[in-house]
Amino acid sequence: MLILNDVAVRYGRFEALRGVDWSVGTGQSTVTALLGPSGCGKSTLLRAIAGFEPLAAGTVSWDGEDLSGRPPHRRDFGVVFQDGQLFPGRTVAQNIAYGLARRGVRGAAAAERVATMLDLVQLGGFEDRPVGALSGGQAQRVALARALAPEPRLLLLDEPLAAIDSQLRESLAESIGTIVRAAGTPTVLVTHDHREAALMADTVSVMRAGRIVQTDSAERLWRRPADEETARFLGARAVVAGVVRSGVLITELGETDLRGRVGFDDLADGDCTVALRPEAVIVEPDPASPAVVEHAAALVAGRRARVRVGGDVFEGVSSVPISVGDHVRLGLAPGALAVVGR
Ligand SMILES: Nc1ncnc2c1ncn2[C@@H]1O[C@H](COP(=O)(O)OP(=O)(O)OP(=O)(O)O)[C@@H](O)[C@H]1O
């Protein structure tokens, strides 16, 4: 199990990480995503774990052993970067066998391991291909096979899908999740995309400004973000005050019964802050309402409207066509709302 205790990393006077307490590989969680906006310190944290970045404070340990004296190649961690970084001019098999030779696995044993890894990433028979002749998705799967071949005790993936077409990304995200679970290797996945985190990870840790602000399942994160900034990062467009009474949430947009809903079972009565993704706000035509549509668009996921109500602006969804200038009323859809920080 990987444990980080009060870790700090500095670049000159800039503190890129501070006070990071974190653990990976506990309980049932195989894949842990490190999710956060650009520049928050995700790659720095991954590099600190891998041993590429010296710590200004704190410790990184594995099963109780402090790793500070161990260089990256002696940590037994596999690493895959954004663009795979395969060795050019070599074949797929030569790339995958690279880490095996360093561990003394050669000849027939290495060839067998390479074939097993290629089957795992569904590229059986690709041994003799030059890596320059692979598609982006195939190259990333070879990079994954290369990282997993020496049976690392931890796998570190830094935005492994960043260079992949959006069409392929979702299926590759799923297949990487399946592959690392089949290999049973605890994995850290760095991503700035919350969809990708939810598709691949069992546990999601949200980072901001060099700190980890929340660690939860993706589902819990959607419903109970730690603070307003986290809620906005996860797609909330508006925040309103609410109050919970006997499990019923009451807001200026209406009320909704949260009893029995996943993620809200432990919600105590009292005042709260409610974060609203557009799907949480239902827009319906109502000529008598003072709320007016400022912007309307037909998206693949449905009709979207930006609505002004006095000084406030909400984004919502509509099941009927609406246009700019229409008067509408707003309601709550419980599925996409979140209660912040409680
Ligand atoms: N070698 C370096 N020297 C100085 N500052 C650095 C260095 N590497 C990173 N930083 C700074 O540290 C902060 C964290 O960078 P990091 O690359 O870890 O962020 P990130 O969350 O991985 O971002 P992204 O999603 O854009 O890759 C940023 O402000 C970055 O500018």
Automatic annotation (TrEMBL):
Alphabetic keyword roster: ATP-binding, Cell membrane, Ion transport, Iron, Iron transport, Membrane, Nucleotide-binding, Transport
Protease is among the record's keywords: no
Gene Ontology molecular function, alphabetical: ABC-type ferric iron transporter activity; ATP binding; ATP hydrolysis activity
Occurrences of domain ABC transporter (ranges): 2-234
Keyword DNA-binding included in the entry's annotation: no
One Pfam entry name: ABC_tran
InterPro entries for the chain: AAA+_ATPase, ABC_SmlMolc_Importer, ABC_transporter-like_ATP-bd, ABC_transporter-like_CS, ABC_transpr_FbpC, Mo/tungstate-bd_C_term_dom, P-loop_NTPase
Domain of life: Bacteria
PROSITE patterns per UniProt: ABC_TRANSPORTER_1 (PS00211), ABC_TRANSPORTER_2 (PS50893)
GO cellular component, one term: membrane
Family matches, as PANTHER family: SPERMIDINE/PUTRESCINE IMPORT ATP-BINDING PROTEIN POTA, SPERMIDINE_PUTRESCINE IMPORT ATP-BINDING PROTEIN POTA
Protein name: ABC transporter-like protein
Organism: Gordonia neofelifaecis NRRL B-59395
